[in-house]
What we know:
6 helices; 106 residues; single chain; mainly alpha
Amino acid sequence: LEKFRSKFASENRRTLIKADTDLHHLIIHNCNNKRLTGMLDNLHNLIQVFRVAGYVSMGRSARATSDHLAIVNALIKRNAELAETLMRRHIEKTKQDILKNFKVKK
């Protein structure tokens, strides 16, 4: 967790995107759900496009980092219910941010 915390403290976009990718990979591949792992591995390239887009704003990056660390802490404590709630919130916030960024301006 400390390794990720220090990487997420960076202001370098490449470092942040790599840390974000590594953290998602760690969570996904330790969930013991081969079906989910396979589905997300197949979607990796598409997900990566949105991950890169999400790190345009340092404010967005800081919120995502906070979300990630809270999720990992819940997983470490084996609090599945909290981890699920935090992941759902994170996904919804990320979706809203992405939609806002890709919104066509008239």
